[in-house]
Design goal:
The complex is a heterodimer. Chain A is built from six helices and no strands. By secondary structure, chain A is mainly α. Chain A has two domains: 59 residues; 50 residues. In chain A, helix 1 packs across helix 2. By secondary structure, chain B is mainly α. Chain B has two domains: 80 residues, no CATH class; 162 residues, no CATH class. The radius of gyration of chain B is 21 Å and the shape is globular. The chains are: A mainly alpha, B mainly alpha. At the A-B interface, helix 1, helix 2, helix 3, helix 4 and helix 6 of A face helix 2, helix 3, helix 4, helix 5 and helix 6 of B.
Chain lengths: 117, 250
C-alpha cells in the first residue's frame, strides 16, 4: 500500500514539476495520471496493492469533495448576485451534456456493431 | 458574571481546539459519515447526497461558531490533498478499460468530443447571455469535470478554483439525480451509454449513481469521467482565450 501510494505521489510530483518547468496549462495530477497510465502499459498492468490502494482512494472520492464544497461560504455573495445565470447555466448545460453524450454513444455504437456484423 | 466564569474554561478549550487541525478534520469526516449513513437509510436515493449533507452541516457549523473558512481548511486540507493522488489513481480503472476503449475508439471519441463541447460550451454561452461576470463564466466552464481536474483548469483559465469546486459538486448531484430518467425518456437505455453520459456530465457523483445501475454502467462512467477530465484539461485552456475575446468583442 505504501509503495503504491508512493508511486501515485511520485507520478503527481513529476507531473507537477513538468507543468511548472514547461509552463503547461494542464493540472499536474492529470499529467500524473497519464504518466501512471504509461507506466502501467509498460509494465503490463497494476499490481494487486496498486489496485487496492486506487480502489480505496476512489471508493471515497466523494468525501474528498467536502472541504472544497464547504468553500461555498466564500462565494455566498457571488452565488447570490449571479444566482440566475449560474443556476440556469448549470441545470441546462448538464441536461444538454447528458443528452449529447448518451445519444451520440448509443447511436454510434449501434451503427458500429452493425458494421462489424 | 457568574455565567461568564463558567463559560471561560469551555471557551479556552474551544480556543485551543479551534487552533488545531484535528477539530475540523474530524468534523469533516463525521459530517460525511453522517451523510453517508443517511443515504444508506434512504436506500441509496440519489437525492440524499452525502456531499451535500456534509457541506450543509459544516457550513452551518462554521457560521454558527464564527469560524473563518481558512481556519476550517487548515484542518480539512488533509482530506483535500488526497484529490491529487486520487486523480492519478484514475489511471488504474482507465487502464482496465483500455482494450474496450480501443475496440470502440471511434464512437467513444466522437461521444466524448460532442458531450464535452456541449456541456462546457452551453454552460459558458448561457452564463454569458444571462450576464455572468468573466470570472464566473470561467469557473463554470469545467463544471462537468471531476473536481481535482476542474479546479486546476479553472485556475488556469482565470476562474475561481473554490467556486468551480462548488459548481462541480452541484452539477454532479443534479446530474446524478436526473440522469437515468432523462436518458430513458430520450430512448437511451443501454447501460454503456447511460453510464458514459453520467460520467461525462456528472463526473464522480454521476459515476457513483451509474454503479448503482450496473457494473457496466459504472465502468463506462469511470471511463467517461477520466476521458472528459483529460480532454477538457487539454483543450479548454487553449480555447478560453479566443472565446473570451470573442465574447468580449460580441
Amino acid at each position: 500500500m505504501i509503495a503504491a501510494l508512493a508511486l501515485f505521489l511520485a507520478c503527481q510530483l513529476i507531473g507537477e514539476t513538468l507543468v511548472v518547468l514547461l509552463g503547461l496549462p494542464v493540472p499536474g495530477p492529470v499529467l500524473g495520471m497519464l504518466l501512471l497510465l504509461a507506466w502501467l502499459l509498460l509494465r503490463g498492468g497494476p499490481s494487486d496493492s496498486e489496485r487496492q490502494t486506487a480502489g480505496g482512494l476512489l471508493q471515497h472520492l466523494s468525501l474528498l469533495f467536502v472541504p472544497a464544497g464547504t468553500g461555498v461560504l466564500l462565494h455566498i455573495d457571488r452565488l447570490a448576485d449571479e444566482a440566475l445565470p449560474i443556476a440556469v447555466a448549470l441545470v441546462v448545460s448538464t441536461l444538454l451534456g447528458l443528452a449529447a453524450a448518451g445519444l451520440t454513444l448509443s447511436w454510434l455504437s449501434r451503427r458500429h456493431s452493425r458494421g462489424e456484423r | 458574571m457568574s455565567s461568564a466564569l463558567i463559560e471561560r474554561p469551555a471557551l479556552e478549550i474551544w480556543a485551543y481546539l479551534a487552533a488545531q487541525p484535528l477539530l475540523w478534520l474530524s468534523a469533516t469526516l463525521i459530517a460525511y459519515a453522517l451523510g453517508f449513513a443517511l443515504q444508506r437509510r434512504a436506500r441509496g436515493n440519489p437525492a440524499v447526497n452525502p456531499v451535500l449533507i456534509a457541506v450543509a452541516l459544516l457550513a452551518g457549523l462554521l457560521v454558527a461558531t464564527g469560524t473563518p473558512y481558512r481556519n476550517y481548511f487548515d484542518g480539512a486540507q488533509f482530506v483535500h490533498f488526497l484529490l491529487g493522488p486520487a486523480t492519478v489513481a484514475l489511471a488504474i480503472p482507465l487502464h482496465g478499460q483500455l482494450r474496450r476503449i480501443v475496440a470502440n475508439a471511434g464512437p467513444i471519441f466522437v461521444a466524448l468530443v460532442v458531450g464535452s463541447v456541449v456541456a462546457a460550451g452551453s454552460a459558458c454561452l448561457i452564463a454569458a447571455v444571462l450576464g455572468a461576470s468573466p470570472a464566473t463564466i470561467a469557473s463554470l466552464a469545467p463544471k462537468s469535470v471531476t473536481t481535482p481536474i476542474a479546479m486546476g483548469i479553472s485556475e488556469a483559465i482565470g476562474g475561481l478554483a473554490s467556486l468551480t469546486a462548488v459548481i462541480v459538486i452541484l452539477t454532479g448531484i443534479f446530474g446524478a439525480i436526473v440522469g437515468s430518467s432523462l436518458l430513458g425518456r430520450l430512448g437511451v437505455r443501454d447501460d454503456a451509454s447511460v453510464g458514459f453520459a453520467l460520467g461525462l456530465a456528472a463526473h464522480g457523483v454521476g459515476s457513483a449513481r451509474a454503479l448503482q445501475i450496473s457494473q457496466e454502467a459504472g465502468a463506462f462512467a469511470a471511463l467517461a469521467m477520466g476521458l472528459n477530465g483529460l480532454f477538457t484539461a487539454l483543450t479548454l485552456p487553449w480555447l478560453v482565450a479566443p472565446l473570451q475575446t470573442l465574447l468580449g468583442a460580441g
